[in-house]
């Protein structure tokens, strides 16, 4: 038995895939969803999503969003998503450094919340890629 997963971003359909398990990070913590899980609607936090697809385990970097699961169909609505192979380490490192410079700035016009979110996204992308960004 498999879970059919549809992933949608503001740009449109990102992917449709079938997986044996869907591991996600919600605002309440990590969850593993197996086939025949009870219906669920939850908010997603910036984090890693893993799947077990026909060609092996896949890793994705997700931004915030929503998950709707019912009858072995998962719909994931996210601001952005990148598979491990799509992540550009140089771009993620540049985003991390840019966010850190905003957070350490004395400029009163800096949107610190936005900089914190940008830093979390960059760190998550590096983690999913397997890059130690400490």
Give an account of the 3D structure.
The chain has 134 residues and is an alpha+beta fold. It folds into 2 domains: 3-84, ATP Synthase, domain 1; 88-129, ATP synthase delta/epsilon subunit, C-terminal domain (Single alpha-helices involved in coiled-coils or other helix-helix interfaces), CATH 1.20.5. Helix content is 25%, strand content 44%. The protein contains 2 helices and 10 strands. It has a 5-stranded mixed beta sheet, with no helix packed on it. Strand 3 and strand 4 (29-33) form a beta hairpin. Helix 1 runs antiparallel to helix 2. It is elongated and about 55 Å long. The termini are far apart. The mean pLDDT is 94.
Report a brief summary of the structure.
By secondary structure, the protein is of the alpha+beta class. It has helices at residues 89-103, 112-129, and strands at residues 3-9, 12-19, 22-26, 29-33, 40-44, 47-53, 56-62, 65-70, 73-78, 81-83. A five-stranded mixed beta sheet has the order 2-1-9-8-5, with no helix packed on it.
Largest β-sheet summary: 5 strands, mixed
**Count of helical stretches:** 2
**Number of domains in the coordinates?**
2
CATH class of the largest domain: Mainly Beta
| CATH architecture tag of the largest domain | Sandwich
């Amino acid at each position: 038995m498999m879970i059919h997963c549809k992933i949608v971003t503001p740009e449109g359909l990102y992917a449709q895939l079938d997986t044996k398990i869907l591991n996600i990070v919600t605002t309440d913590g990590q969850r593993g969803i197996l086939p025949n899980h009870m219906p669920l609607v939850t908010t997603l936090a910036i984090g890693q999503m893993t799947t077990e697809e026909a060609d092996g385990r896949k890793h994705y970097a997700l931004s915030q969003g929503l998950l709707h699961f019912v009858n072995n169909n998962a719909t994931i609505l996210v601001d952005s998503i990148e598979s491990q192979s799509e992540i550009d380490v140089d771009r993620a490192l540049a985003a991390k450094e840019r966010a850190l410079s905003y957070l350490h700035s004395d400029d009163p016009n800096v949107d610190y919340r936005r900089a914190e979110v940008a830093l979390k996204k960059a760190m998550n992308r590096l983690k999913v890629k397997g890059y130690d960004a400490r």
